[in-house]
């Protein structure tokens, strides 16, 4: 079982193509099913701790994986029961069912306590499901999941759309403790709401190559430590432009300082800030003076947190875009964007990337409501804007204009408080100025790790302060 950080993400159609390449190279559907069943059985055996196992099998190849796993578990001395939702409908699943020589109960007639004290293995429906499962089936599965000593699901939780993370239908669903991802990470493992049903996700290696995927999961960044030759400007200058709500810009500036920026300037008023922060009143001349002579590769501007609306806000955004420096556009400034500004972003020098950091409401306001996959929506937004788009949320997706995406895997629901997005903007600004190879990814990871360390019920101010120890640990 392999952690899923830094792994390719593969949708249903792409996964079928990966499997077909393996078949074309000399494997077979039956051989792939055997590999999956072996891997599932080994994972269940290791985690069951001697408890009995209930495997529930569907009519497709996911059910076939379940039959293979059940047979191998029984052969290794594990007490196994199998229940099925109908007869197998594929040749490979029928062959796997024929090799299971034990009884098969009717899934629909399982008693409510059938999984009590047992390890549940859900192999009803896997990758590629496109319609809602019957409500009574969902109810039985949810009951079994809640009563199980340990509830696992094979590949993806039954009843979810692999590509979008949508829960199909309006049935009763319960979260699993563990999802065993077969061969590759799927969008449903990282996108909400299905990600909340997956529990911990672990990858089972089936010897399949999915590395050509443009979509990957977020990995721990590799960030260099300062060298003896560095000074405050080569460490990175971050300029935060303040606005109508000074606290938001102050949080962004605090985050930039705490995460390691060499020099941070706030153009705007904010009380009780660290003495290391340079504060000046906003003006075009103040921005020009601050940037004068500074290298674009080690300088970033953050505009938008608490910026406000109207002519004054538009002037500040225009000044930031016109500067030609690396740029994070967040908060209120996002709502001032249009296709004319996107065209200007697309013509900027590659050494001065722009990062947009919308939450869901801001994303809809800028790019319009979307349907389907959040990954695809973020990718389309990056292509349209010419910017790196950090589509925030419990399933943050980072999309690059070239089509590559990275999705965070461990969301902290306690981040849903005022100011945490401002902290993220400042963190990404520091990574842009500090020369991180993938600054948006590094900023999102650092932000999430700081939240993980804090645990629960923290303030955005606490989050900014926590960044210092997170950065020092890398």
Would you tell me the structural class of the helices and strands? alpha/beta
Strand order of the largest sheet: 9-18-17-16-15-14-13-10-11-12
CATH class of the largest domain: Alpha Beta
CATH superfamily of the largest domain: Ribokinase
How big is the Rg? 25 Å
Instruction: Give the low-confidence spans.
Output: none
Proportion of strand residues: 15-25%
Number of E-state strands: 18
How helical, in percent, are the residues? 25-40%
Distance between the termini: 25 Å
Compute the average pLDDT.
95
What is the global morphology?
Answer: elongated
Largest sheet: 10 strands, mixed
Number of distinct helices: 16
Please tell me the total number of domains. 2
CATH topology of the largest domain: UDP-N-acetylmuramoyl-L-alanine:D-glutamate ligase
CATH architecture of the largest domain: 3-Layer(aba) Sandwich
Task: Describe the protein in words.
The chain has 474 residues and is of the alpha/beta class. The chain has two domains: 2-217, YjeF N-terminal domain (Rossmann fold, 3-Layer(aba) Sandwich); 237-472, Ribokinase (UDP-N-acetylmuramoyl-L-alanine:D-glutamate ligase). The protein has 16 helices and 18 strands. The chain has helices spanning 12-24, 29-48, 61-75, 91-99, 135-147, 187-190, 194-198, 246-258, 284-291, 311-322, 339-346, 360-367, 374-385, 420-433, 439-454, 460-472; strands at residues 2-3, 53-57, 80-84, 104-106, 119-123, 150-154, 178-182, 200-204, 215-217, 237-241, 263-267, 278-280, 299-303, 326-329, 354-356, 388-391, 397-399, 405-407. The strands form two sheets. Strands 9-18-17-16-15-14-13-10-11-12 form a ten-stranded mixed β-sheet, with helices on both faces. Strands 1-8-7-6-5-2-3-4 form an eight-stranded mixed β-sheet, with helices on both faces. Helix 3 packs parallel to helix 4 (91-99). The longest helix has 20 residues, at 29-48.
């Amino acid at each position: 079982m392999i952690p899923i950080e830094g792994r390719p993400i593969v949708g249903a159609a792409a996964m079928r193509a990966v499997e077909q390449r393996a078949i074309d190279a000399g494997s077979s559907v039956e051989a792939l099913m055997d590999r999956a069943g072996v891997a599932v059985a080994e994972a269940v055996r290791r985690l069951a701790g001697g408890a009995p196992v209930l495997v529930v099998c569907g009519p497709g190849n996911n059910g076939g994986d379940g039959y293979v796993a059940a047979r191998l578990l029984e052969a290794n001395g594990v007490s196994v029961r199998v229940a099925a939702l109908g007869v197998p409908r594929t040749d490979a699943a029928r062959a796997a069912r024929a090799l299971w020589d034990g009884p098969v109960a009717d899934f629909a007639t399982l008693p409510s306590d059938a999984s009590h004290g047992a390890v549940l293995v859900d192999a009803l429906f896997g990758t590629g499901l496109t319609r809602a499962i019957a409500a009574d089936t969902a109810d039985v599965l949810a009951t079994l999941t809640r009563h199980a000593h340990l509830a696992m699901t094979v590949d993806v939780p039954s009843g979810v759309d692999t590509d979008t993370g949508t829960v199909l239908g309006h049935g009763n669903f319960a979260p699993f403790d563990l999802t065993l991802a077969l061969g590759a990470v799927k969008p449903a493992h990282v996108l909400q709401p299905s990600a909340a049903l997956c529990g911990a996700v672990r990858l089972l290696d089936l010897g399949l190559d999915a590395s050509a995927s443009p979509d990957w999961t977020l990995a721990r960044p590799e960030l260099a430590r300062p060298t003896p030759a560095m000074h405050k400007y080569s460490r990175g200058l971050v300029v935060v432009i303040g606005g109508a709500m000074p606290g938001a810009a102050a949080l962004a500036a605090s985050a930039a300082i705490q995460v390691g920026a060499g020099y941070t300037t706030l153009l705007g008023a904010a009380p009780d800030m660290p003495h290391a922060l340079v504060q000046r009143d906003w003006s075009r001349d103040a921005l020009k003076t601050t940037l004068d002579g500074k290298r674009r590769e080690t300088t970033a501007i953050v505009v938008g947190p608490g910026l406000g609306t109207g002519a004054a806000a538009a002037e500040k955004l225009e000044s930031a875009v016109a500067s030609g420096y690396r740029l994070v556009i967040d908060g209120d400034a996002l709502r001032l964007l249009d296709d004319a500004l996107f065209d200007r972003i697309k013509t900027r020098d590659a050494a001065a990337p722009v990062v947009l950091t919308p939450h869901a409401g801001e994303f809809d306001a800028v790019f319009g409501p979307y349907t389907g996959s959040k990954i695809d929506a973020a990718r389309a937004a990056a292509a349209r804007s010419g910017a790196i788009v950090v589509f925030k949320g419990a399933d943050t997706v980072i999309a690059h204009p070239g089509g590559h995406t990275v999705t965070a895997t461990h969301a902290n629901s306690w981040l849903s408080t005022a100011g945490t997005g401002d902290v993220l903007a400042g963190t990404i600004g520091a990574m842009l100025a500090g020369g991180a190879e993938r600054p948006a990814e590094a900023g999102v990871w650092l932000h999430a790790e700081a939240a993980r360390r804090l645990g629960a019920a923290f303030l955005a101010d606490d989050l900014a302060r926590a960044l210092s120890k997170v950065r020092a640990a890398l």
